[in-house]
């Protein structure tokens, strides 16, 4: 009986749009993935139109699926593909499901999706319906995080890697430790409409809500709809300081890092002294943005199929209190 009720969430007709260029698809094989998904949906009585598309074809397919007669739209790919889907589906009543076919799959992890493809498809069948906040940058929606500083610049110079997330994490960590202490700091200026915060930093991140205090390398957000940006600004100056910060993050103790400034906002205007163009990473995709630019939190802008909402363990302890933006000029 429970399954019958929850099946209404995904509906009887779905469009499944798969990025055939994503990491998992390249490893597994697009046709193999398509056939596996078709079997799962058929087994549960869901009529699924499955499309294997290149990255440049996805936006048009999403728009067509949004305006069609399907009950739900499911997208498979990495976080950049999910961002494309969020941009198209924001404000629409039709729910979006996510299949984790990228490398890190931050959005899928936040939604509580299993990383195994068959298990993920099964989870979508009975996934509760929820509403998720989004980040808006220059009119485009993002699900997870906006990153400034050395990391986007470093990523620009690397060959894209489509493989195991643990291997990519190790490779990324090695490059971070090698380069971060030598990257010139940014003179960052953040303005929330009332106050201004200035800081010299090599790394800053604007997350869609808070991250949980959990052990591990891959973060997971505390809530899908907390209604705020959480801003993380590093004030570390040495490689040793960054190493300590990384260890604190892995141990789930980043809040005890005295060289990390953390505060909440609902929107921010971002500028950098002496820089008119800035490399910014938005959900894994590198954008070169003209400064100043603005980031907005769009509360409950996206209807999502989210297995985590059915899990009792998703109800975590309340977060420690996070301050609003520090006083003007405080670093």
UniProtKB/TrEMBL annotation:
Family annotation (InterPro entries): ATP-NAD_kinase_N, Diacylglycerol_kinase_cat_dom, Lipid_Phosphate_FormReg, NAD/diacylglycerol_kinase_sf, YegS/DAGK_C
Pfam annotation, one family: DAGK_cat
Record carries keyword Protease: no
SUPFAM superfamilies (alphabetical): NAD kinase/diacylglycerol kinase-like
Protein source organism: Phragmitibacter flavus
GO molecular function: ATP binding; ATP-dependent diacylglycerol kinase activity
Designated name of the protein: DAGKc domain-containing protein
Ribosomal protein as UniProt keyword: no
């Amino acid at each position: 009986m429970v399954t019958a009720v929850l099946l209404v969430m995904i509906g009887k007709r779905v469009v499944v749009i798969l990025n055939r260029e994503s990491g998992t698809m390249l490893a597994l094989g697009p046709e193999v993935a398509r056939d596996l998904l078709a079997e799962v949906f058929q087994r549960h009585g869901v009529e699924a139109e499955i499309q294997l598309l290149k990255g440049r074809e996805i936006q048009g397919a999403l728009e067509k699926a949004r305006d069609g007669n399907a009950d739900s739209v499911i997208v498979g790919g990495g976080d950049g593909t999910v961002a494309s889907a969020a941009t198209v589906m924001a404000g629409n009543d039709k729910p979006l499901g996510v299949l984790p076919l990228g490398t890190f799959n931050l959005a899928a992890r936040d939604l509580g999706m299993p990383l195994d493809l068959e298990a993920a498809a099964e989870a979508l069948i009975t996934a509760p319906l929820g509403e998720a906040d989004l980040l808006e940058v220059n009119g485009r929606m993002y699900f997870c995080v906006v990153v400034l500083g050395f990391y986007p610049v470093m990523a620009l110079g690397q060959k894209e890697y489509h493989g195991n997330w643990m291997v990519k994490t190790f490779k990324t960590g090695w490059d971070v430790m090698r380069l971060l202490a030598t990257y010139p700091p940014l003179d960052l200026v953040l303005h929330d409409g009332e106050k201004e915060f200035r800081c010299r930093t090599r790394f800053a991140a604007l997350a869609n809500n808070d991250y949980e205090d959990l052990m591990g390398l891959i973060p997971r957000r505390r809530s899908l709809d907390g209604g705020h940006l959480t801003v993380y600004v590093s004030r570390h100056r040495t490689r040793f300081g960054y190493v300590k910060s990384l260890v604190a993050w892995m141990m789930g103790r980043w809040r005890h890092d005295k060289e990390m400034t953390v505060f909440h906002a609902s929107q921010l205007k971002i500028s950098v002294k002496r820089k008119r163009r800035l490399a910014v990473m938005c959900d894994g995709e590198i954008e070169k943005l003209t400064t100043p630019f603005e980031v907005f939190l769009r509360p409950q802008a996206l209807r999502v199929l989210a297995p985590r909402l059915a899990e009792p363990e998703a109800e975590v302890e309340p977060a420690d209190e996070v301050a609003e933006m520090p006083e003007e000029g405080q670093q």
